[in-house]
Amino acid sequence: MKRIICPLLILSIFLSCKSKTGDTDQDTTAAGRLDQSQALLHQFKPLINGVWVKKDYVKKVKKTKSPLEAVEHGMGVTVMYIDTAQLKGDSIMVPTVINNHEGTDMALRFQPGKNTTTIELGDDELSYKVKNGDTTLIIYSYNPKTKETATAQYIKAMQTKPAGGLAEGMNYMINQAILSGNYEGTDGAGKKVIAKFYDNGKVSGLPGLTTYYVQNDHIADPEHSHDEIIFNLNTKDQKSYSFIINKKTLSLYDNAEQIRSNKPSYSLKKKRD
Asked: Within 10 Å of residue 106's Cβ, how many Cβ atoms?
């Protein structure tokens, strides 16, 4: 009987020790992940809060003075809002705008990506760089079919999410890049006009018009052949003009015939600040 009990006792002790060792390994791994997550949160948190817009798209709009000319740069994530105060566990849901058209959420996890400089953002990875005190966020997107990694850079538009929706972050940057400022000129009848376009989409000096929106959702409006400004959007007084910016002159056209004949409804020259 003793010969049977001893081996059973030894086996029991061995299995017990192995179980404890396994539990210890799991606890150590979990603690390691937690420590790593906290370290990444500490590293990224001071830099990533705010509304971010796609840098190449805004740069192209500014250069060409035309959202239509910049369409190819406005693909993928064009706007995103990160608020680390919404952290749950090791992750945050990040509202985004795709192709300047549709909204969706992506999970930002404070876990390392393929290297120590990135964290997980949906199926992609997020990193950053700081130059002269300015932060740029970078999204890395890996394509398993081509085995290539695409990168997109993002600059901060504003600190908090605008009340009118996330897309206003892009609208603000476009306004600032090509339209905001003081103008003098004439209407179609030759009457003098003094107008001002504001960063926030307000406008003054144009009779009956109080707000403006530069069309940048070319999925919703794919057939438009010219750049478009919509005044008093979503009101009974909504009014659309095609526009052309040539150097410092903003020309607003009612229709294609006006464009062909170069007889704008408004011809406004931007003044120096």
From this structure: 19
